[in-house]
Design a protein that fits this description.
It is a single chain. This protein is an alpha/beta fold. The protein has 2 domains: about 220 residues, Rossmann fold, CATH 3.40.50.10260; about 270 residues, 3-Layer(aba) Sandwich (UDP-N-acetylmuramoyl-L-alanine:D-glutamate ligase), CATH 3.40.1190. The strands form 2 sheets. Strands 1-9-18-17-16-15-14-13-10-11-12 form an 11-stranded mixed sheet, with helices on both faces. α13 links the parallel β13 and β14. It is elongated and about 90 Å long. The model has no long low-confidence stretch (mean pLDDT about 95). Bound molecules: ligand NPW, adenosine-5'-diphosphate (ADP) and potassium ion.
């Protein structure tokens, strides 16, 4: 599945018409009928349906939905939130067909009546505004949105909840609070941006017959189980531990010994061939008593030749619970100077700001795993700015510094140095607890050393991390009690689901 911007969608629409001779009227018919099929699940034979139709093509979809439902015998009231002269093009064609069928409509300027009609609804279909919405919501939409949100009705949005833009816009948001949104062909980026996502309610895509090749050319993947199954490497019958990577985890200090323990255990549970934990002499015994399968490196040993000791490793994850001492800064410097693929997390990111210019020169891949707070620190912006513009922030950063960026959140976004992005949809608020990110670093470390592209390895790691948490909740955990350790205990189930 893809996530598609408004600009990409308009381009696809244009090409579908020009190159494939699919007319706009046909696509609108397909959209309206595909959504109607979904809407039927929410209706009983006596349901009163109110379809709110805006001035653009989103409204055009509304005319098709209203006609199709009325034609099936449902009681449908259509309210046109625009003057007649505003309804143009394909939407006007479908309005004419609707009227030709003999079905009634009310116009918004018949003031009080429309409020009564909306109040009489069992189900409200919001076909007011879609990807053409820009800026701040204007009247009369504002009043209608407030009215809808004050009522306790089932609200179904067409493509987007009206008032939610396809991508972030400045200014406050007043939008329809939908129960479910049927996204035409693909969810738009706002479905994954914190300030807009809740307005969608649940969301599903509907297929309207656009050529798949046009959609596939879009750059942002919503990472699904299908994609994981296609790309997650299976172990070869004749493989040996050396085939699955030799990983080094660097982190931990006396106040945070648990972080590296989590990273190490998650890496081992995620397929790493050989694992070494590098930490301070006081942390190592604590970790060693819990992680039997790893080997250890005392990074505080004065005789240690750090540069030569990191040579045998295939990849290094650094930063988890590492603290901010001069020593840890030196470890980070050496790791950045190395020719190894590296994952920089947590305290490693803290030191990174002064090294950013060096990253583009590295020969091996650099993977950064910031949460929005760390991202904001790296780019001197507010956390809110990062949360409101995650796709743009991540893309600019990854391209500028030629890094793979894993911007963590409820929808973690993986961005490649060429700007390609994947969105993760697994995971739940049970992960909003210290330690979850440490586990992710371990899963990533293990996965990037297996076969497969770095993009799919990172996307799969995020998917499996979230899936383990989801499976734990489906089993006997709740989002309140879930611990990072529990997540690791559900990695076996997550891998089995993805590998079978
Ligand atoms: N391939 C596809 O994707 C297909 C897409 N289809 C559908 O088309 C939809 C896109 O249609 P679209 O381009 O006509 O835009 P749409 O969302 O109806 O909005 C335009 C109207 O909104 C108004 N308006 C704007 N901002 C506003 C504000 N702040 N406050 C108030 N009003 C505001 C604007 O007014 P104006 O600015 O012109 O005064 C204009 O009247 C898409 O979401 C999908 O549902 C299918 O039919 C078929 C195939
Ligand atoms: N509400 C949520 N829904 C889904 N995933 C979440 C949620 N909150 C946090 N996560 C995930 O949990 C992890 C938290 O990482 P981070 O903030 O670095 O925590 P820590 O380093 O303290 O373990 C990230 O992978 C993030 O995507
Ligand atoms: K809508």
């Amino acid at each position: 599945m893809k996530s598609v911007t408004a600009k990409e969608m308009y381009n696809i629409d244009r090409k579908a018409m020009e190159d494939y001779h699919l007319s706009g009227v046909l696509l609108m018919e397909n959209a309206g009928r595909a959504i109607t099929e979904k809407v039927l699940k929410h209706l009983s034979k006596d349901s009163i349906v109110v379809v709110l139709v805006g001035a653009g093509n989103n409204g055009g979809d509304g005319f098709v939905i209203a006609r199709t439902l009325a034609n099936l015998g449902f009681q449908v009231n259509l309210i046109q939130i625009a003057f007649d002269q505003q309804i143009k093009g394909d939407a006007a064609e479908h309005k004419a067909i609707y009227l030709k069928f003999g079905y009634q409509m009310t116009q918004i300027n018949q003031t009080d009546i429309y409020q009564d009609i909306i109040q009489s609804a069992d189900v409200i279909i919001d076909a007011m505004l879609g990807i053409g919405f820009q800026g701040e919501l204007k009247e009369p939409y504002r009043s209608i949105v407030k009215l809808i949100n004050s009522l306790n009705k089932t609200v179904i949005a067409v493509d987007l909840p009206s008032g939610v833009p396809a991508e972030t816009v400045d200014g406050p948001t007043l939008a329809v609070q939908a129960d479910i949104t049927y996204c035409i062909e693909a969810p738009k980026p706002s479905a994954f941006i914190e300030r807009y996502a809740n307005f969608y309610g649940e969301w599903e895509t509907v297929e309207i017959g656009l050529p798949k090749s046009l959609l596939e050319a879009c750059k942002t993947d919503v990472w699904t189980l299908d994609k994981v199954k296609q790309t997650l490497p299976k172990r070869d019958k004749h493989s040996h531990k050396g085939s699955h990577g030799r990983g080094l985890v660097i982190g931990g200090h006396k106040e945070m010994p648990g972080a590296v323990r989590l990273t190490a255990t998650a890496a081992l549970r995620s397929g790493v061939g050989l694992l070494t934990v590098g930490s301070t002499s006081d942390v190592l015994p604590i970790v060693a008593s819990a992680v039997t399968e790893a080997t250890y490196m005392d990074l505080t040993d004065p005789k240690l030749d750090f540069e030569s000791r990191i040579q045998p490793f295939d990849a290094i994850a650094i930063g988890m619970g590492m603290g901010r001492s001069d020593l840890s800064r030196q470890w980070l410097d050496a790791v950045i100077e190395s020719d190894k693929p590296i994952i920089i997390d947590a305290d490693g990111l803290y030191f990174l700001k002064s090294h950013l210019a060096k990253l583009a020169e590295r020969k091996a891949p650099t993977i950064l795993t910031p949460h929005p707070g760390e991202m904001a620190m790296l780019i001197d912006q507010t956390i809110q700015y990062v949360k409101n513009n995650p796709f743009e922030v991540a893309k600019d950063f990854a391209k500028n510094y030629q890094v793979y960026l894993v911007l963590k959140g409820a929808y973690t976004i993986v961005t490649c140095p060429n700007g390609e992005q994947t969105i993760n949809t697994t995971g739940n608020p049970g992960l909003a607890k210290g330690g979850s990110g440490d586990c992710l670093a371990g899963i990533i470390l293990a996965q990037i050393m297996q076969k497969g592209s770095l993009k799919s390895s990172l996307a799969n790691a995020c998917y499996i991390h979230g899936l383990a948490a989801d499976l734990a909740i489906e089993d006997h955990h709740s989002t309140t009690d879930l611990l990072a350790t529990d997540l690791i205990n559900f990695l076996p189930d997550a891998f089995r689901k993805c590998l079978n």
